[in-house]
Each structure stands twice: as C-alpha cells, then as structure tokens.
Amino acid sequence: xxxxxxxxxxxxxxxxxxxxxxxxxxxxxxxxxxxxxxxxxxxxxxxxxxxxxxxxxxxxxxxxxxxxxxxxxxxxxxxxxxxxxxxxxxxxxxxxxxxxxxxxxxxxxxxxxxxxxxxxxxxxxxxxxxxxxxxxxxxxxxxxxxxxxxxxxxx
Length: 155
What we know:
Largest sheet: 6 strands, antiparallel
Strand order of the largest sheet: 10-9-8-3-12-13
Structural class: mainly beta
Oligomer: single chain
Mean pLDDT: 86
Strand content: over 45%
C-alpha cells in the first residue's frame, strides 16, 4: 500500500510505497494535468525522508507557457532542478529510470531528459508527489532484482 503525507501549506501530496527500497529503479505513472487547478504530478525515487525531503522527483508541470517535464533532486532543505524539457500535452505515461548516477525521464515512451544525478547513490523508497493533478496507475520495479515488479492503482 501507499503511505500518504499531505502538507497543506504547500498544497501538495506525497505518497510512498511501503516495504520497497532500491537504488536502481524504474517508476511509472499515468499523469493527468488537464484540470484547471492542476499544477504538477510526479514520481519519486530514492526517497529517504523525513517528510518532503531527500528524493529524486520526475514531474510534469503546468505553467503559463504550457507543459514541461522536469527532473529535480531534493537534498536536505534544497531543491535543485537538474533539467527540463517542453511537452506538447499534460497527460500520459511518465517514467523515471534512476540507474546508478544517471536519470532518464520518458513521456509516452519517448525519452526526453537524460541527466547526471550528483552526490551519493543510496537505496530509497518510491512514490508519488502531486498538486492538483490526477495519477491513475503507478508501477515500480527494482531494476537490480529481476521480476520485482509492483503495481498499484491510484485515484
């Protein structure tokens, strides 16, 4: 099951998958930002916590200029945007591969972002982080252990 945390001051929700920790993961979710209030929907890897700290976050964000895929790293109290790419739409399958020191974000099976992840590589949890968006299907796979594929339906 997913464990959810809500921080109402920032208007986002964070949910992590219990009993799943890995450094090398492939995480997928179907995201939908077509609602007027939708700001972003993302998938989390290498989550260490506590609360909204220490993780990798691949997300689709909505702004005045349209939709963007973004790769973020949060360490301590600092969020760093590692890379961004323009999207033609705000709904579809978002995928994050975090393998070693590299992250790859794909949208609708098209690789968009490839970037280096600075710092140490530690095993952590996986999950979802969103503000106003819908996430329908969530999957996570430990890519270092063949066959460990877990699927959860959300929303």
